[in-house]
Each structure stands twice: as structure tokens, then as C-alpha cells.
Amino acid sequence: VLTLKQSVRMNPDFAPVHISLGKALLDQGKFDLALYEFDVVVRAGKSHYPSAYTYKAETLFKLKRTEEAHE
């Protein structure tokens, strides 16, 4: 996770590193932090990274925010 955080700082506009960091945080149960990383990609309109949307929905379900997950 530390290496991924450093990569985000070095390449803040590189969507794949946000997705990788979000997935690592999700796997650690750090749902709020993971959601932030997926949101960075989604808000930037990076629609060619569908995994960000999938992981965001999964994270919202884990946070019991099901209404948002369906959007």
C-alpha cells in the first residue's frame, strides 16, 4: 500500500494506480479510503476503466450504502 500511495503522489492523474490502491485498501477492509480512490477515477470521467465503477459499487455495498451502489 505504501508503494501505491507513493505512486499516486507521483502520478495523480494515472487512473490505474488509483484503482490498484483502492483495491488494496478494499482488501484490507479500509472501505472509506478505498471509496475515495475509486471516486477519483469515476469523477475524472475515466469511463474506459470500468473496474473503478465495479469496485466503487462493491465498496458502497460493504459500507451498507446500497442506494448509492445502484446508481
Tally of alpha and pi helices:
5
- List low-confidence stretches: none
Kindly state the percentage of residues in helix: over 70%
The biggest beta sheet reads:
none
* Total strand segments: 0
Q: Mind telling me the C-alpha Rg?
A: 11 Å
**Terminal Cα span:** 28 Å
Overall form: globular
Instruction: List SSEs in N-to-C order.
Output: HHHHH
Which structural class do you get from the secondary structure elements? mainly alpha
Question: Average pLDDT value?
Answer: 94
Strand content of the residues, in percent?
A: under 5%
Write the layout of secondary structure elements.
Blueprint: H1 2-10, H2 15-27, H3 31-43, H4 50-62, H5 66-69
Helix pairs in contact: 1-2, 2-3, 2-4, 3-4
Description:
- With 71 residues, the chain is mainly α.
- 73% of the residues lie in helices and 0% in strands.
Can you describe this structure in just a few lines?
The chain has 71 residues and is mainly alpha-helical. The protein has helices at residues 2-10, 15-27, 31-43, 50-62, 66-69.
